[in-house]
Structure formats: structure tokens, C-alpha cells
Amino acid sequence: MPQQTPNIRRAAVSALRAWSKGHTYMDSLIERHATRNGVTRQDRALLQSIVYSVLRNRRVLDVWIGKLRKGKLDHETRDILRVGLSQLLFLGIADHAAVNETVNCAKSSVRGLINAVMRQAIARRSKLLSDVDEMSPPVRYSHPDWLWNRWRRRFGKKDALDLLAWNNQPASTIGRINPLVPQASEIVMEHEKTTPVEGLDGFVKIDGTPPGEWMKNGYVYIQDPATCHCVNLLAPKPGECVLDACAAPGGKTALMGAAMQNRGEILCTDSNGKRLPRLNENLNNLGIKIASVMAHDWTKPAPVEWHGKFDAILLDVPCSNTGVLRRRVDARWRLRAEHITELSSIQNAILENALPCLGEGGRIVYSTCSIESEENETFIENFLSKHPEWQLVQSHQALPFRDKTDGAYAARIERSK
Which of 73, 240, 348, 390 could make a disulfide contact with 311, Cβ separation 3.0–4.6 Å? Predict the structure, then answer.
């Protein structure tokens, strides 16, 4: 076995420990701790699958740990056991590899304990797995109780259960073929690991990681079909001047650029200047020639020179991410009920500051990747009650348990005639 293999488990534990202390997002932590622990590119997929499995199944893992080990555990030892049991009971990694490598990543003082618990788990595997069916839904699917209770009230028990189950499945890799690259469709569709997504022209399901040259050459952009709804409602046209106010990393900008046939102007802004290089890179790779990029925080007033400038404005605002918990695996553990209320005030500030920038006869699309009413339909209703000079033209809510895509909301508003 390669010398670096044991470090995969060490990297997983290190990433989980840093994440639990509030350090950035898990995707970034996986990269950082893979590098620190010498994990090869080939082994990073295994590292990610272990970490994501722990996050997706955290409550079940803790129930099992409680059955296999009585007494208190320090946080690192608990994370090591989560990593070990996840390999044995969820990922199907060979027993000897899971036990040996997990034990080796622990401090010598707890290796005996880790070994004993994992050996017990192997001996009691069938019973542990059958016990999962008797757990309550938020434990079985490892979601916070408050989210389960909220969704059960909002959607009903059946749909709420389907939503929990959806969030706990690894997300498919979906790509949109770039119509601005003439050869892209032929190259992508000839690949043995791609299949068209039924009913969605230009979208393909990709088995595994897409070839690196596809991204570099702009053949595809990885994005869920739910990202299209807001752009479809905005309906940008060739020759128009469009604002994409919260643009990074650029997937919706690319959709707009294609719809506009690279004719017109798109101003892309983002509040975080650190995101702009990646935004620029993505747009360049995808052949978007009409976009300019700059930093702006839309919770603050827009520059006067932007007032009345735009024919169409897309506001893909910061939100709770409850529609994309399948992809943003760690978000469910960071989110609190009060965050939704706090986000509404940020969303309102962004919308209010964008209003003066719309030209006469223009339209605004407000969008989120949330399934919460306070951020979506109720938010728009409240806005319209305070601004009778505006009207809702059309809206769309995508729900994962119904549409089998990410959750997303979009509302097109215009000034009343």
C-alpha cells in the first residue's frame, strides 16, 4: 500500500477538526488538509468521500459510537471514530484497510480504544445497520431537529422525509454544454461517461470527474438545471445592458452571455474581491466576451453612474442554501433558524440598492437557492406591499423532492405601468 494512504484518514480528521472550530467551508478545508498531509491527487476523491460521509451521517455515527463506547470522548477521538465507522458502515471500504489506517492516524494513547471500537462495529455490523430504520427521521438522515420540524410543518411529513433523503444522497455531476463553443456538443456527447438529461436541452449527466480540458476549453460548465430558472425569467436579449449583481463564480453570467449571443454588455459584481479571479477565469474559459468584473457590496448604495443604466438586473442574493444542502454538505450544521431572519435584512438591502440602477421599462429578477418562504415568496410579498409601484410578473420555485433538482426560487418584478 502506498506510503501516503494512511494520511488520507489523518487529513479527514484534521479537516473535520478545523471545520468544527468554524474555519471556512469544508471544500476549502479538504484541499488545504490534503496538501498538508501529502494526499495525492488520485486519493483526494477518497478523502472527500470520507469527509462528506461523516457530515451526511453525523447523528447516526454518534448514536453508534454511544452504543460501542460508554463514557466521554474528547472531540478528536470522536472525529476519528466517525471517520472509521463511516468507512466500515457507509462506504464499504475493506475492513482491514479501514481499521488499520484509521488506527494509525490516531495518537498512540487512543489507538487501542479506536481499534476496539472498530472491531466491535465489524462484529455488530448487521445490528447497527438495522437499528437505523428505528431512528427518528432527523437522526436517520442526520439533519438538525429544527429543520425537520420546519419542513414537516411547511411541506407535510411525506415531502419532508423525501427532502431529508434527497439531501443525504451524493449529488450527481451535471454539466451544461456551452453553446458558444461550436465543437463542444460533439466532443461532450461522444464521451462514454456522459448521458443527456431528459427534458433539459444542453444538460448532461457526467459519470465521475469530467476531463480537465472540458473545463479549460469551456466545453461545459458544472451547474444544476435549477440555475436556469432565474435567467429564463430575466430573458436577457442581445444588445442589452445587464447587471449580474452577485455573480461569482459565474454560472448564471455564462447562461446570460449565451442567451445574449455575446452581444451587449454584462456588468458582473461581487462583494468578495477574492472571488473575482475565479469569476474572471470561468468567464474567459467559457468564451464570455461581453462581461466586465468588479467588486461591489450591494448592501451599500450603488455608484451614481450606474443609476438608470441597466435593461435587466439579476440579484442572486446570499441565502440560507436550504435548496442545495445535497451539494453543500456542511451547511446544514452551520445554519440556525435565526439566520434566515438575518439574511432577509441583507436580501432587502441588496434589492433596495439595486432599484435605482434599473432603466425605464426594465426588469429585475430576484433569486435564491433557498426553499424558505421568508427568503422567497413571503419576502417578495413584503417588498411589494411597501412598493406598490412594483408588480410581480412571474415566479418559479424549484423543490428537490418534487423536481429532482436543486431547490431554487426566482421572481421577476417590474415597475407598474
Answer: 240
Asked if residue 55 and residue 160 are part of one domain, the reply reads no
Amino acid at 99: V
Catalytic residues: 369
Q: Answer yes or no: do 164 and 179 share one domain.
A: no
- Measured between alpha carbons, how far is 114 from 101 in angstroms, rounded to an integer? 11
**3-state DSSP: the chain helix, strand, coil percent, rounded to 5?**
55, 15, 30
Q: In what order do the strands lie in the sheet with 241-244?
A: 291-295, 265-270, 241-244, 310-316, 358-368, 408-415, 390-398
Greatest C-alpha distance within the chain = 75
- Kindly report, residue by residue over 223-239, the tens digit of the pLDDT: 999 999 999 999 999 99
Residues 127 and 182 in one domain: no
pLDDT tens for residues 53-106?
Answer: 999 999 999 999 999 998 899 999 999 999 999 999 999 999 999 999 999 999
- On the CB side of 92, CA atoms within 13 Å amount to 0
Q: Model pTM?
A: 0.92
Judge whether residue 5 has pLDDT over 80: no
Based on the domain organization, do 267 and 303 belong to the same domain?
yes
SS3 215: helix
Measured CA distances, 262 to 235, 353, 385 (Å): 14, 27, 37
Closest CA to 321 of 345, 302, 339: 339
Tens digit of pLDDT for each residue in 359-390? 999 999 999 999 999 999 999 999 999 999 99
Q: What 3-state DSSP class applies to 297?
A: coil
